[in-house]
UniProtKB/TrEMBL annotation:
<dbReference type="GO" id="GO:0005615">
    <property type="term" value="C:extracellular space"/>
</dbReference>
<dbReference type="Pfam" id="PF01433">
    <property type="entry name" value="Peptidase_M1"/>
</dbReference>
<feature type="active site" description="Proton acceptor">
    <location>
        <position position="133"/>
    </location>
</feature>
<keyword id="KW-0862">Zinc</keyword>
<feature type="domain" description="Peptidase M1 membrane alanine aminopeptidase">
    <location>
        <begin position="61"/>
        <end position="276"/>
    </location>
</feature>
<feature type="binding site">
    <location>
        <position position="132"/>
    </location>
    <ligand>
        <name>Zn(2+)</name>
    </ligand>
</feature>
<keyword id="KW-0479">Metal-binding</keyword>
<keyword id="KW-0482">Metalloprotease</keyword>
<dbReference type="GO" id="GO:0006508">
    <property type="term" value="P:proteolysis"/>
</dbReference>
<dbReference type="GO" id="GO:0070006">
    <property type="term" value="F:metalloaminopeptidase activity"/>
</dbReference>
<dbReference type="InterPro" id="IPR014782">
    <property type="entry name" value="Peptidase_M1_dom"/>
</dbReference>
<dbReference type="GO" id="GO:0016020">
    <property type="term" value="C:membrane"/>
</dbReference>
<feature type="binding site">
    <location>
        <position position="136"/>
    </location>
    <ligand>
        <name>Zn(2+)</name>
    </ligand>
</feature>
<dbReference type="GO" id="GO:0008270">
    <property type="term" value="F:zinc ion binding"/>
</dbReference>
<dbReference type="InterPro" id="IPR050344">
    <property type="entry name" value="Peptidase_M1_aminopeptidases"/>
</dbReference>
<keyword id="KW-0645">Protease</keyword>
<dbReference type="InterPro" id="IPR001930">
    <property type="entry name" value="Peptidase_M1"/>
</dbReference>
Length: 717
């Protein structure tokens, strides 16, 4: 320190690097540190996790991940980590989730820090994020994209590599089933005409932010996983190693990688991948049984609107089928590169395409075959990823109008004895989607759907109980949390009463044994949904104010929107916009308002009437404004709301039109209610159960999406 109070800091000379990877952090931080073993190169790398003052104890999990990841990638790429240190910094107010600055990776606090007893789901999220960013130190920093058009390649590969490493470090997590669950959002997005190719040109720097989306990250990762399944993971990783060695300390593009992989693998990688990266969308394979030993498989572009145009029918993708028939010891691998293909299959028994869900496509089966597949649930014939894939394919086909809603409702019955957390998490998401669409429908329909949900999840709660046991498998705890949450959502009186009892104990003296971390969100949500009073609401607001744990702040903030009265909805909106909530967390606070009819209406009105203020405050963050608009309208599910939104000048409306058509065009809602109420009255082994007893017409017309959702004018309303 010099006499005038100034301090001079000298830095080591930087390697050759892109300017967007340069970062400084100046402020008061605590930190913890550790060194890599140095076994690979003989040089130990200093790794540190920097935190806001007082939160260093929450950095141990990420520090351990960093050490293991640096060592893993050094061996994988056969290149030592190229810098002498690696810092991971938790930033209290940071809009991106994380940024891979070379040697100084920045994270939102929620994405990096977790207490020792934090929830298993959050540990999964943090692991995927930390490892993703560390992989960039090689694939992105040591070798950098030639131009932003190649963003998808480096983000998609970092995502794919993160899952590979997580699977290596934590094989018990079944991370690939989680991957299948996660890609459903991009499958939904990419089924819209307003989607874009993975590989998209960027002519102007102003266009860069528009391609940081699910297509670049998750579709990119998905088609790379499909390539990995086709080539074999070991061969793919050898090709990646060769690519990094060839282009280290320089730039490369997508074509450079395809050529390198083709040289290593001796197959036409460019010909296979170009269709998947340069062509928008993906196919649905429709299976027609010609006789007892033959099926016809036809591919068409899958559109969630269900209204394929004639010119779109000519699109073809090279599809690695990877299918299994009952009794097969291993999958049969066939490349489908034509519009149609005839295959020899025993149609009297079950068969499944896209085994392992490694392909980026959907499959539509005859109802008989779907029933036969459902009968395998509860056995070891189809793993969790395959069961999740079947469920999500059927749900998507129902939403698009390709399949009747009865096919989804009937398939639910086969999950009654399911024990896998990932599968139940996906069931809960699909039911949430259905509830959201049908929320404003006749009370009989809503109550019947609640009863289906209550029966499914209460059974699990009775089996697992509320208390976490020493040595219990983490996935069991996750399943318990999902079951309690969704049985409580359905209004099971015993579960609601127990949640309120535990809530009172926790709020009275912060008794963490009453509500363990994995149950914090479920219990808070159940209590907020079960009351219109302000006492519980104020308890949660006060908890938000006093806790220093980032994850707990997010939980408290998220559940406020579940309040059931107009007063609480308006208080939540006011609180979200107050100085007590960071800008990065505003959308978290308002998202759950969409769970009630009152909340949807108030959020929509708030956005319309306060647009000038929102624009003035956030005009520099177009992504924030963009998503605020999406949250305000995407859950609407009535024709009246659809026309109201269109009258406000929004022609690109996500989900509103398709929701309203699906929800209102039942020819006989009474028969639908009967069907819902009878779901638990059949044997899960009755192969003739799938029928057309519900005559539901889903006449879905044009649907658009806020893919190009940029707010164009301050005077939007």
């Amino acid at each position: 320190m010099s006499k005038n109070g100034m301090q001079e800091v000298s830095f080591l000379k930087t390697p050759i690097m892109s300017t967007y990877l340069l970062a400084w952090m100046i402020g008061d931080f605590d930190y913890i540190e550790a060194y890599t073993s140095g076994d690979f190169s003989g040089e130990r790398v200093l790794c540190r996790v920097y935190t806001p003052v007082g939160l260093a104890d929450q950095g141990h999990y990420s520090l351990d991940l960093a050490i293991k990841s640096v060592e893993y990638f050094s061996r994988l790429f056969n290149i030592p980590y190229p810098l002498p240190k690696l810092d991971l910094v938790a930033v209290p107010d940071f809009a991106p989730g994380a940024m891979e600055n070379w040697g100084l990776i920045t994270f939102r606090t929620y994405a990096l820090l977790i207490e020792e007893y934090g929830s298993q789901d959050r540990k999964h999220e943090i692991a995927a994020t930390v490892i993703h960013e560390i992989s960039h130190q090689w694939f992105g920093n040591l070798v950098t994209m030639e131009w932003w058009s190649d963003l998808w390649l480096f983000e998609g590969f970092a995502t794919h590599l993160a899952y590979i490493v997580v699977d290596e470090l934590f094989p018990e997590w079944d991370i690939w089933s989680e991957f299948v669950k996660r890609i459903q959002e991009v499958l939904k997005h990419d089924s819209l005409r307003t989607s874009h190719p993975v590989e998209v040109g960027v002519a102007n720097p102003s266009e860069i932010t528009q391609i940081f989306d699910e297509v670049s990250y998750m579709k990119g990762a998905s088609v790379l996983r499909m390539l990995s399944a086709w080539l074999g993971q070991d061969l793919l990783l050898l090709g990646i190693r060769k690519f990094i060695h060839k282009y280290m300390w320089s730039n490369a593009n997508t074509e450079d990688l395809w050529v390198t992989l083709a040289e290593e693998c001796k197959v036409d990688v460019p010909g296979f991948m170009r269709k998947w990266t340069r062509q928008t969308g993906y196919p649905v394979l429709s299976v027609t049984e010609l006789d007892e030993s033959t099926v016809l498989v036809r591919q068409n572009i899958f559109l969630s609107t269900g209204d394929m145009r004639e010119e779109e029918d000519s699109l073809i993708w090279p599809v690695p089928l990877a299918f299994v028939c009952a009794g097969d010891s291993k999958p049969r691998n066939i490349m489908m590169d034509s519009k149609e293909m005839i295959l020899k299959v025993d149609t009297t028994r079950w068969y499944k395409f896209n085994m392992g869900q490694t392909g980026f496509y959907r499959v539509s089966y005859p109802s008989k075959t779907l029933a036969l597949l459902g009968q395998t649930f509860g056995t070891d014939q189809l793993n969790a990823a395959n069961r999740v894939g079947l469920l999500t394919d059927v749900a998507a086909l129902v939403t698009s109008g390709i399949a009747p809603t009865s096919s989804f409702l009937t398939l639910l019955k086969y999950f009654e004895d399911e024990e896998n957390y990932m599968v139940w998490a996906e069931v809960s998401l699909r039911l949430t989607e259905m509830f959201s669409v049908w929320l404003e429908q006749p009370e009989a329909i809503v109550n019947a759907l609640k009863e289906v949900q209550r029966r499914l999840f209460t059974k699990i709660v009775k089996r697992l109980g509320w208390d976490f046991l020493d040595g219990e498998d983490p996935s069991t705890g996750n399943l318990r949390a999902v079951a309690i949450r969704f049985a409580g959502r359905a209004g099971d009186p015993e579960i609601v009463a127990e949640a309120r009892r535990r809530f009172r104990l926790f709020m009275r003296n912060r008794d963490t044994s009453a509500i363990p971390p994995d149950l914090r969100f479920p219990v808070f949500e159940i209590v907020m949904r079960a009351t219109e009073g302000v006492e519980e609401y104020e308890d949660i607001v006060n908890y938000y104010r006093e806790t220093f744990i980032p994850a707990e702040k997010v939980v408290a903030l998220s559940v406020l929107g579940y309040g059931q009265s107009l007063e609480l909805v308006r208080r939540t909106l006011a609180f979200a916009m107050s100085s007590e909530v960071r800008t990065q967390d505003i959308l978290t606070a308002i998202a759950t308002l969409r769970s009630s009819v009152i909340g949807r209406a108030e959020l929509w009105n708030f956005m319309r009437h306060h647009w000038d203020i929102l624009y003035e405050r956030h005009c520099d963050d177009i992504g924030f404004l963009d998503y605020f608009v999406v949250l305000s309208i995407e859950s609407f599910s009535t024709i009246e709301r659809y026309h109201e939104v269109k009258c406000q000048g929004r022609n690109n409306i996500p989900d509103v039109e398709i929701n309203s058509n699906w929800a209102t065009m039942f020819t006989n809602s009474c028969r639908l209610t009967t069907r819902l109420n009878s779901l638990d009255n059949r044997s899960t082994h009755n192969s003739n159960s799938i029928n057309t007893s519900i005559k539901i017409k889903i006449n879905i017309s044009h649907r658009t999406h806020l893919s190009n959702r940029l707010v164009q004018s301050k005077d939007w309303d």
